[in-house]
Structures are given as C-alpha cells and as structure tokens.
Amino acid sequence: MGKIWALESARTLQYAASMQIPAKGMGRETLMSALDAARARDANWRDGKTFSLVYYAGDDVLELLHDAFMKFFSENALNPMAFPSLKKFESDVVSMAGNLLSHPSVAGSMTSGGTESILMAVKTARDWAREHRPHATAPEMVLPITVHPAFEKAAHYFGVKAVHVPAGADYRVDVDAMKAAITDQTILLVGSAPAYPQGVVDPITDIARLAADRGLLCHVDACVGGFMLPWVRKLGYPVPDFDFAVPGVTSMSADVHKYGFAAKGASVVLYRSRELRRYQYVTYADWPGGLYGSPTAAGTRPGGPMAAAWAVLQYLGEEGYLRIAKQSMETAHAVMAGIRSIPELHVLGEPTMSIFAFGSSELDVYALADAMDKKGWSVDRQQKPPSLHMMITPAHARHVEAITEDLRGCVAEVRGSSAANEGSAAMYGMLGSLPDRSQVEAFIGQFMDSLDTTTA
Question: Most CB atoms within 10 A, among 280, 294, 349, 434?
C-alpha cells in the first residue's frame, strides 16, 4: 500500500550507465558481497528509527518467516491441484482472518498486498453491479478523501469513477457528505479502519447502514488495522465497530504483512459470502492451453508468502499478538505523550491504534522532518494538512525518550531558521502550494522516471 517514498529523500541514486548480462557468471561470494554493498544505503529498519515500510516483531519471528518462506520458495499456487499445501495455507489464513474479523464462514483469497486486495474488491463490486445494478453503466464508488490511493489505481484499471468526500474535524469521513454523493451510478461505499494518514477509524456502522439502505456494497479497508484492532480491543482500548459484525459490511481487506508481521507480500481480501467472491474470479473456457481460472490479479502466485503467513499466525498465536499489540500501543501512547509535551506540536485527531500523525501551527513540519533525518530518524511526510507520520511496532519501544528529546531539539533548531527553504521542505512547500494538482502529478511521474536514469 505504498507511497512515493522517493520524494522523502534528497539522496542521489546512481546506477550503471549500461547494464548487460555478463558474458561469464559471477562467483557466489562476489555476488553476496555485491548484494551487501547494495543494501548498505537502505533504511535500517531493525534499529527502530524507521516508521514505515517494514513491520518488525523481532529476530525470532524474522527467522521463522525466512525458514517457512524458503521451504516453499519455488512452489506456485497458480495450480492448487499441483500444490495442495499452498491451498491449505491460503484457506487457513483466510479462515483465521475471518474468525478474527467476526465472520467464521468468510470467503476470501490471499493476495500480494493491500493494493491487490483493494483492486480485487473494486473489481468484484463492478462485476456484481453489472448483474445487480445494470442501470449503473458508468459505475462510481464513494470514498473518504483519506482512503488509500490504491482505490485510485482500481478506479483507473476497472473504469469505476472515484468520488471523494471530505473528512470532518476529527478526520473521519463525513457520512452526510457521503450520502449526498450517492447517485444512481453508485455501486460501492468505502470506509477505512483505520485510515492511514491519521490513524482514525471511519464511522463504519453509519457507512454500512447507508450502503445497505441503498442496496450498495460496502468495503472496509482494514489493510493496516485488520490484524491489530481486534487485539487492541481485547486489551481494553476503545475501538469502534468496524468489521463483519457490522451489518452491511460486504467485504474487507487486511494485510498479514503489516501488523500480522508476515513476510511480504501477504494480504487477504474477504467477502461476506462465496456468492459475492465469485465476481472476483476470471475464468476462460476456450484457451487451447486448457481450462483457465484465476482467483486474483496475479497468475503465478508465489508459495513463500502463503507459507510464511500461515506459519507466523500459528507461531505467535493470540498470546503473542496480544503481547505485541500491548507493547506497540504503550509505545505509541508514550510517543504521542512526548509529542504533546512539546508546545509547538500536536497530534492529529484521536488515533485508534499505533499509527498517527502530528503537525504544527507554528513551524514548517517538513523542515522538522529534514532535521530529524539528520539525526537518523526516518519519518514520513504527509499533506492536507502538512504533517509527519509514525507507525509504531515493538522495535520503537526502546527509543521513546530519544524520539521526544530529538523532536524537542529539532523544533528549537527549526524555529526562526531558514530551513523551510532547504532540502525536502522546500520541495514539499512548493508542491503543496501549486493549485493545479495535475502539475504535481506530472512532477511525480517525472520523478519516478528519474529514479532509473543513469548517472555518470
């Protein structure tokens, strides 16, 4: 469920001017050294100073994931009859997710990640609507402005118009605005549990009731929260209703490789019924190569992520996940308390779990992020409003005091300085001020192109 990470760095990436397959193969030791050298500049996610991209639950979990993944490194779930082990793993993971999310008889599939899960949910809604809402010839889905951009990708791929509605002052979607946005072309309503930018859960009960009243489907994007919110609730923290226990919720997405701490890429897309899931499939009866059926977007489906996801759910169990959730929540609340103790900073909204954002009405948070970068911290930049984002896992527990201390020091450094005219702060400030967002999108595309441009 990625973001334009490259925009958060001023580093210059260098690649070979012209790369060809070598005439003679390279030795194993030389290759391993080359791989080690290549990763030397990568984010060091083990040290607890990176706040996105990798969910790390300890070396014992990492070793288990590696071993389970490698046992099924070459297997391919494209054909479940050839590899029934992988079908078992997939079915078990889907079933465990369904039980966790209040629907023991759930139907679903494993995917490569949250984006593919969301793509499949939108494709399913589109194909369901062709049968059940045939008048919706130009189908639309109504989305919170805070929803993940994977829905934009789905809109582009499947010809379903994305209609965005605003969030309220608490950063939860405005359900009245969502109601007003429904037309005779609407097929799907979406809410997040939680939305990634501020870590708050949308009013799922209200969204699902609205969808049911209008005969629409309702998808809950719980990619980041699906394998965390149930444990947070069991620990006694307040968690609003968000899963299949809510009448009207027809599908959900949840990433096992996020707070399920599985190996990438492992996610699930879940449906209230097998009948609904069937609209996800692509089947073709006339290929000379044989009868063809594909449950998800991928053809070849690597076995490693399936085996590792199954293994980590079995290994950690409820006891392990509760332990991790407890440590993550206590750490997140301690970090937020530290942020709130700095007068110039404030936490956005009331985060439900262990992801949150903070901003400032007094200084440039992008300049603050640049200052934190120099101290070895890697925090994500966000916009609308300008803010910095943190995703907390047990890896961050030992750094609570250091985070607060460095934030306080960096705030003092940024106040009254010209840092806003330097580094990524200048870039974010310029891009954020452009009224024509198509210009910003063009810049993002050009920047992505530049990442594989040769450097002398």
Answer: 280
Q: Indicate the pairing of strand 107-111 with strand 267-271.
A: antiparallel
Characterise 35 by phi-psi region: left (phi > 0), alpha (psi -120 to 50), beta (else): alpha
| Same-domain pairing of 73 and 130 | yes
Rounded CA separation 268/97 (Å):
8
Q: Is residue 256 part of a domain?
A: yes
Residue 340 CB neighbour total at 10 angstroms: 13
Looking at this protein, which amino acid is placed at residue 249?
Answer: V
Is the residue at 191 inside a domain?
Answer: yes
Number of domains in the chain: 2
What is the SS3 assignment for 455? coil
CATH of residue 153's domain is 3.40.640.10
Q: 234 is written with which tokens?
A: 């069991």
Where does a domain end: 288, 313, 338?
A: 313
Q: Are 29 and 37 in contact (CB under 8 A)?
A: no
What is the rounded CA–CA span in Å between residue 151 and residue 142? Answer: 10
For residue 48, what are the domain limits?
A: 44-56+320-447
As a whole number of angstroms, the distance between CA 46 and CA 55 comes to: 9
Residues 302 and 355 in one domain: no
Spatial distance between the Cα atoms of 18 and 456, rounded to a whole number of angstroms? 11
> Is 72 in the same domain as 51?
no
Alpha carbon distance 232, 354 (integer Å) = 9
| Amino acid code (one letter) for 49 | K
Q: 187, 192, 134, 135: which is closest to 161 by C-alpha?
A: 187
What is the full per-residue pLDDT of the chain (456 aa) written as tens digits? 344 444 444 444 555 557 788 899 999 999 999 999 988 888 788 888 888 888 988 999 999 999 999 999 998 898 888 999 999 999 999 999 999 999 999 999 999 999 999 999 999 999 999 999 999 999 999 999 999 999 999 999 999 999 999 999 999 999 999 999 999 999 999 999 999 999 999 999 999 999 999 999 999 999 999 999 999 999 999 999 999 999 999 999 999 999 999 999 999 999 999 999 999 999 999 999 999 999 999 999 999 999 999 999 999 999 999 999 999 999 999 999 999 999 999 999 999 999 999 999 999 999 999 999 999 999 999 999 999 999 999 999 999 999 999 999 999 999 877 655 566 665 566 566 666 667 666 666 666 666 665 443
Based on the domain organization, do 130 and 276 belong to the same domain? yes
d(CA 121, CA 157): 12
- Of 279, 313, 347, which residue sits at a domain end? 313
On whether residue 255 sits in a domain, the answer given is: yes
Tell me if 229 is assigned to some domain.
yes
What's the pTM value of the predicted model, to 2 decimals? 0.89
User: Same structural domain for residues 377 and 443?
Assistant: yes
